[in-house]
Amino acid sequence: MRPALAALPSITPVGMAALLPGASATFSVVSNKDKLGASIDGTFLPDLSARQKFLKSHIVFRHGIRTPFSG
User: Fold this and answer.
1) Which of 10, 11, 19, 27 is the most buried (most CB within 10 A)?
2) Of 30, 28, 29, 19, whose CA–CA distance to 58 is shortest?
3) What whole-number distance in Å separates Cα of residue 47 and Cα of residue 31?
4) 18 and 8 in contact (C-beta within 8 Å)?
5) C-alpha closest to that of 20 among 7, 34, 31
6) For residues 71 and 62, what is the distance between their CA atoms, to the nearest angstrom?
7) How far apart are CA 69 and CA 30, in angstroms?
8) What is the residue-averaged pLDDT of the chain?
9) pLDDT (0 to 100) of residue 13
10) From start to end of the chain, where are the E strands?
């Protein structure tokens, strides 16, 4: 047996960040300036406004529809 750690999708700063684009590849929980939060692609996401900004930067319009950035 090997122990594992995972973030459950929940209504918490860490859980909500676990659902963002790129989280499946680079998600980690980090501490920055005495704040605990998620990190995706090296971006610290401690609160709602940071998660919204990250999401907006990873969404593009295709054929008039917003879709996750695919590379």
Assistant:
1) 27
2) 19
3) 13
4) yes
5) 7
6) 13
7) 24
8) 82
9) 81
10) 28-32, 35-40, 43-45, 59-62, 65-68
